[in-house]
Amino acid sequence: MALAWWIRRITGNSGWIDVIWTAGVGLTAVLLALTTADDAPTTRQLAVAGMAALWSLRLATYLLARTVRAGDDPRYRDLMEYWGAAAERKLFGFLQAQAGAGFILALVILIAARAPGAFPGVEDVAGLTLFTAGLVGSAIADLQLRQFKAKVENAGKICDRGLWRWSRHPNYFFEWLCWLSYPLIAIDLDGAYPWGYAALAGPVWMYWLLVHVSGIPPLETHLMRSRGAAFMVYRMRTSAFFPWPPKQG
Questions:
Q1: Which of 36, 111, 167, 200 has the most CB atoms lying inside 10 A of its own CB?
Q2: Cβ contacts of 43 within 8 Å, gap of 6 or more
């Protein structure tokens, strides 16, 4: 994340921050998941490492395309303006906090990868199914938003089509589902693997980050400024995170 800070400084494009964070978390998680004292990783280690790699590759690729196309991330731009003269110093500290958050997520993947027992068990199937749903759902949400923004007649409007009709941030919700899959794989209800419960830190931590810290709050602050009344109407009738039928009227 020190590299992300430096690249943002020389390019003036804060979009690179999330690209580098996602790639860094994914790479760290894959390396941790595959680390073993035995001759070769187990099948579960390979499966969990593959999950981490797919998540990182999909999201980093999407963020990279957005960064090249749209440039500066308004969330970071607003933070920099708010911090004023201390912006560079405070951004560096903020990104180090993000590095710590990412390392916690990588450890969650390590815990899931080291779960004992024969593979695939019922827990593995449930986790892989939920992960697939999260990965596909987030990709669909991102595609719907990109297609909406690509139409000239939608300039300045709020995307309320498809999944975005049911949630103001369906991409965040489905990303969260991906992290919820790791405790399903890690937790052994018979108590043979106590460390498995620590994997709950993944979805809890990610929910807190997305809903209360670096996801929804700064993004919606920006939308309030840039979309005004249109976003207020959308906000009143649409669930913030969990998909839910929109309010009528």
A1: 111
A2: 119, 120
Angle at 73 between CA 67 and CA 75, to 5 degrees: 155
Q: What are phi and psi for residue 178, nearest 5 degrees? A: -60, -40
Percent of the chain with pLDDT over 90: 80
The C-alpha atoms of residue 193 and residue 190 are separated, in whole angstroms, by 8
Query: How do the domains of the chain map onto residue ranges?
Result: 2-237
Q: Which two tokens stand for residue 34?
A: 């595959």
If one counts every other C-beta atom within 10 angstroms of the C-beta of residue 4, the result is: 22
Give residue 211's Cα distance to chain centre.
11
Let me know if 182 is exposed, middle or buried by CB neighbors in 10 A (0-12, 13-18, 19+): buried
Q: What is the pLDDT of residues 63-105, one digit of tens each?
A: 999 999 888 888 898 889 999 999 999 999 999 999 999 999 9
Q: Give the 3-state secondary structure of residue 229.
A: helix
End-to-end CA distance of the chain: 45
